[in-house]
Amino acid sequence: MSVAACPGCVSGTGSGLDAEATSDARYLSFSVPTIHCAGCIAKIEKNVGSCRGVRSARVNLSQKRLLVDADVGLRDEILARLAGLGYEAYPLDRTVLEKGKDPEARALLVRLAVAGFAMMNVMLLSVSIWSGAEGETRNFLHWISAAITLPTVVFTSAPFWHSALSALRKARLNMDVPITLAIFLATGMSLFETWVGGHDAYFDAALSLTFFLLLGRYLNHRTRMAARSAAVELAAMEAKTALRMGATNQQVPIEDLKIGDVVLVQPGMSIPVDGTVINGESDIDKALLTGESLPEKADLGTDVFAGTRNLTGPLQIRVTKPIENSVLRRIGELVSLAETAKSQYTGLAERAAEIYAPVVHILAFATFLGWYLLGGDIRHSLNIAVSVLIITCPCALGLAVPAVMTAAVSRLFRAGVLIKDGTAIERLAEVDNIVFDKTGTLTRGEPVLSGEISADVLTVAAGLAQGSAHPLSRAILQAATLRGIEPASLTGITELPGKGVEGNFQGRTARLGRAGWLGVEAVAGTMQTWLQLDAEAPVCLRFADVLRPEAETVVRQLAERGFKPALLTGDRQDVARPLADQLGIVSVLADVLPEQKVTAIQERGGRTLMVGDGLNDAAAMGAAHASMAPATAIDATRTAADCILLGNSLSEIPHTLAMARMARRRILENFAIAAGYNLIAVPIAVLGYASPLAAAIAMSSSSILVSLNALRLLRDKTS
């Protein structure tokens, strides 16, 4: 669905209560992926809030969530009310979502604030010492600095020494090992110098080290704050109960269902299990699982799947698979496995650390040993070794990546692209081919009435369409509204599941529905419905899933830049191929299930960017080297994606890839700055010409230089 920018999109993220603000069991949560502005917020809150039994309704625009203060029994009524307003909605399990919250960002921010406050105070005390304080005054100031530094260092450097200990237990080194050594040796040597009344103490160096390293860690985490496991989102979308039929119908948790049980699924409800229809007729919306834009008929013997939606008639379904083996659960497992694999991606900084860490330790130990053998003074040798550790402490290396990432993320956010994953920029820079989903990604995702339709036909069709929730009925009503045509007044409107809608128009029987129901042969390769008045020849109403206006330009730009666009869709080949030809896409794979999409991504070779919007794309997006989703994608898919196109336009994809490559160049430049700094500073420290204080100042200067280079991304116009 195409959306336009509006003041509501810019001015706020919702009204009132945040959709994550409470875990009270009486609150119901819904994903409403098609809301986009303040008008949507007002309409939903007013209409849902007016339901009897609803105490309040609040929309969170940024998360596309609706939080309703109401009893659980009103869930279906609220879903029906939202459907009546024209909004897709999916119930979410708030308990599952609450488990996905991450306190790491808050903890890092607290540690950063404490380290900064302590560092400023100790530096103020150091000013007096640098100004010439001697004797008892100097010792007193050193002891005050020690009292501030010791608890601060233990608390604020916890992320580093926890990581270092974990690495050492596994008999390996990481970047946090030299960091921890530098911090604690600087603190320990300073405490020793204070104890013996020495002239120099380096508490300010220990704190500035900790502060700059925490800053790098927090900047890195900021790019991942929006991420939550897509597997958790999928679990939250799953129906939690089902109406099991028996001597008395009983609402039971889906985990209690056994193979052979029969469940009743009313129109408008999500199907909770994989099973076979044993009674009833209906239309099933399978878009979440397959991407197929048109609902499918379901009747006796039809296999149905958890996560799809029953549209028009009640169905009795016999359970054929235990819930843990359902298609929806399998997609969740695929997504989880893909996320795990992606989380093992080794970034540039980590790869540099694998080489850097052992070199630093060897160099510091060799410096200590050399000076001790030359002079025999263990105290002097340790001071020089600490200076080497401080001056080689990878602050610049630690800031090289997160400083660039933060600048790139900020620039892209202003352009309408939200980067969610910490390594996404690096992975986007490595992409060499691109795969698009069709429905809702390259197209608007909703059928639009096409061709010349007379006003007389459209008014009757719109009158019948008012009695159906079918996507084609909604398209007819939308077309009538755009042309200013009032729907005809009909009586006795009845929806016949799996067939269509019929009613009485001026004493004549009017029918709107499938070709087979009206006794005509369907037109191949197109979405269609038919209108018939009495025994007159039926009229065909054709529909198209309209391309996004920017799709052709974006595909051409990507091809010109050397990428290989491809189409991967669950839709039929006869629908996908003409669209691909229109866009100039050569490679097309259609009629694929979610797990087949994962296989297709893995078999493509190279490093693939997946762009999709549906549940059926979530696992493939996790398996791809990098992934994007439009803002109208469902929650689970937006969560699985590395970045979200907030403006709901594909036009930012080429810009994002260009920015990613530029960011990678800035990272490599920062590594060069850090290496050049070390080539100059390390010999000075090894030769004993740099005190720990001078080493700390040099380290801080290199960190600032790296940060300034990263900020060039905010001004660079070449992308």
In short:
By secondary structure, this protein is an alpha+beta fold.
Description:
The chain has 719 residues and is an alpha+beta fold. The protein folds into five domains: 7-92, 2-Layer Sandwich (Alpha-Beta Plaits), CATH 3.30.70; 104-222 and 345-405 and 662-714, no CATH class; 238-333, Calcium-transporting ATPase, cytoplasmic transduction domain A (Distorted Sandwich); 416-443 and 548-661, Rossmann fold (3-Layer(aba) Sandwich); 445-546, Calcium-transporting ATPase, cytoplasmic domain N (3-Layer(aba) Sandwich), CATH 3.40.1110.10. 50% of the residues lie in helices and 17% in strands. The protein has 26 helices and 26 strands. The strands form five sheets. Strands 14-26-25-24-15-22-23 form a seven-stranded mixed sheet, sandwiched between helices. Strands 6-5-7-13-8-11 form a six-stranded antiparallel sheet, with no helix packed on it. A hairpin with a 5-residue loop joins strand 20 (527-533) and strand 21 (539-547). Helix 8 (176-195) packs antiparallel against helix 9 (203-222). The chain is elongated, with a radius of gyration of 31 Å. Residues 1-25, 95-100, 223-231 and 338-346 have low confidence and may be disordered.
Q: Helix count?
A: 26
Rough outline? elongated
Class computed from helices, strands and strand pairing: alpha+beta
How many domains in all?
Answer: 5
End-to-end distance: 29 Å
Largest sheet: 7 strands, mixed
Helix content: 40-55%
Return Rg in Å.
31 Å
Task: Count all strands and give the number.
Answer: 26
Strand content: 15-25%
Nearest-integer average pLDDT: 77
Describe the strand arrangement of the main beta sheet, using strand numbers: 14-26-25-24-15-22-23
Poorly predicted segments? 1-25, 95-100, 223-231, 338-346
